[in-house]
Amino acid sequence: MPVVRPPLDRLGADPGRRRLLSALLGVPLLASGGLAGCSDDAASSSQDGPVELSVFWWGSAKRAELTEKALRLYSDRNPRVTFRVTWQGADGYYDRLATQAGGGNVPDLIQIDDAMLTEYTQRQVILDLTDHHVDLRGLPEGLIRYGTVDGRTMAVAAGQTHAAVVFNRDLLRDLHMPEPRAGMTWPDYLSWAAQVTEASDGRVAGTMDGSGDYRALWLWLRSQGGEFYRGNQLGFGADELIAWFELWQRARRSRATPSAALVEQADSGEPARQLVVNGVTAASFAWSHQLPELQRLTESELGIVGVPGPAGAQWARASMYWAAFRGTRHPEAVADVINFLTTNGEVGAVLGHERGLNASVSVRRYAEGSITDPAQRRAAVFGASIADQLGPAPAPPPRGHAKVRTLLVTAAERIRVKRDGTREATARFLSQAIAALTV
């Protein structure tokens, strides 16, 4: 259920943008704390009274605890700004936002991901931040690009993440099996998974079936010089998709993956349903920033490694973004809060890598020593290990991406239960996906 919090007392802003907030809020200039990479450009505003900003995000109770603590740090510096926060699990989040958008009452500051960035831009739900003093200087170039639509800054990365294989380290030790390694080819990875299944006498399968996982498909395509999208169209055709589906058909025949029924339970991507934490598989596909949450769901030690293929197929991907409602009455205040959440060192130490690696490279370095959670540290080490190998970032996915993801899952499921052959499922997917992208 959604959790609604009353306004948090004494919420304020990062002093890095002193003149802006002095003009905006009419509060005294305060001494700087932590890192502040924000602009000192002045802004004019007639607002000189209290400002209440509504904030909405999805995530766990732990994310809520840390985010509210970060917002309190903001208010400690600017007492006239207060926040009304609402958060809930990922399921139903966008349904709730759609209802709010229909009524014109979207919260001032919202968390979104790349599935909706382009669509919310084109539907004019979110604010163009290009001229609203957002500070992107500390972000990797690829991460900046991944928040732009048609050359305009529409959102700022709340964190950086990478597609990864999360594996049960304790289980592999018990089975005397090696851990998956970075840079494995897809055939090598699936051969390893089949050996794990055999070593366990079939008690667990080596890997989650990734045939319907768009992340895995996207990186597989990029490893061969392809792309998932070209502009607002699919970047691949029938031959590529058939080859992908047949790769996983061979994996099933070698018993590298679990039964179709078990895979279907995990296809939603919800951490609690991931088969690696349920003891069904030795490995699952996930985002690297999800490792701490996955670790909380199992007593076994989890490890992390890149998805098979070259690290250069990956890019600096935003785990999620902070975006402003186009109809907010306080656009500069919202932009300043975004700056505070993404460029302030003290905030970086509070949030850790809960939403992924801190968006700002300088904040990552500043906060590194304060992160004590072992799973967060493992995720950070993984991110650092491929940082210099990342490829160029593509444009954010086009409008209709969320539907395309669902269609891919459906096509993969129909093949797994033998309702469709690979060619029939591919033809149906391409027809429906092309239609979804032209709406």
Automatic annotation (TrEMBL):
Signal peptide: none annotated. InterPro entries: Bact_solute-bd_prot1 (IPR050490), SBP (IPR006059). Pfam families: SBP_bac_8 (PF13416). The lineage of its organism: Bacteria, Bacillati, Actinomycetota, Actinomycetes, Micromonosporales. This is Carbohydrate ABC transporter substrate-binding protein (CUT1 family). Transmembrane segments: none annotated. It comes from Micromonospora violae.
